[in-house]
Write a structure and sequence with these properties.
COMM; 8 helices; Nuclear Transport Factor 2, Chain: A; COMMD4/6/7/8; NF-kappaB binding; 55% helix; COMM domain-containing protein 6; 17% strand; alpha+beta; elongated; 2 domains; 3 strands
């Protein structure tokens, strides 16, 4: 991970750290590593999304552990120096600065930690389609609904999950959402 951190320009690394702190504070639903990776690649850095996700997971673990142990910025940097001597100097400076500025606000309560292990629903998109024909069937005329859910996993990395439903399945799905809405109105 340290070798890949060396490749990331300081401003992008700072942005990643800030997004992780915001995610841990439940201010944003997750870190859009795909978008950030694309911007870093556009800046001429050879990094892939898998490596950036590993860095994000490592930093998320680092910040949440520091919060659990109520570490000051200096204690965090000292522990980084003793455990991970291969981190580049600019990364340690960014971690110190971000933790000093925003780390104090990071509150990791038992409830927040338990909730974060499940992941978080961020967005839902759907579209209606009709399959007209296929290799094996000349005339399908089969309507379907494609649903794409955006979910932030516990580390904050956002992923899209897509699935298709028949019209009766979608009607049942819709009915269940209406039931949830009516229950939520009573709360």
């Amino acid at each position: 991970v340290a070798d890949k951190i060396r490749l990331i320009p300081q401003d992008f690394f700072a942005e990643l750290c800030e997004q992780i702190i915001q995610h841990l504070n439940h201010k944003i639903p997750g870190i859009n590593t795909a978008e950030l990776c694309q911007r870093i690649q556009t800046a001429g850095v050879d990094i892939n999304i898998g490596d950036l996700a590993k860095i994000a997971n490592t930093l998320s673990f680092l910040f949440s552990t520091a919060a659990r142990n109520s570490l000051s910025a200096e204690e965090l940097v000292t522990s980084l120096g003793s455990g991970v001597s291969t981190l580049p100097k600019h990364a340690v400076q960014v971690i110190r600065h971000v933790w000093n500025e925003q780390g104090k606000a990071l509150a990791v309560s038992g409830d927040a930690t338990n909730m974060a292990t499940v992941g978080q629903f961020v967005d839902m998109k759907w579209k209606l389609g009709v399959a007209m024909s296929s290799d094996t069937c000349r005339s399908l005329k089969y309507p379907y609904v494609t649903v794409t859910l955006t979910v932030a996993d516990p580390s904050g990395q956002m992923t899209d999950k897509s699935f298709e439903m028949t019209i009766p399945q979608f009607k049942n799905f819709f009915r269940q959402f209406k039931e949830m809405a009516s229950v939520l109105e009573t709360v």
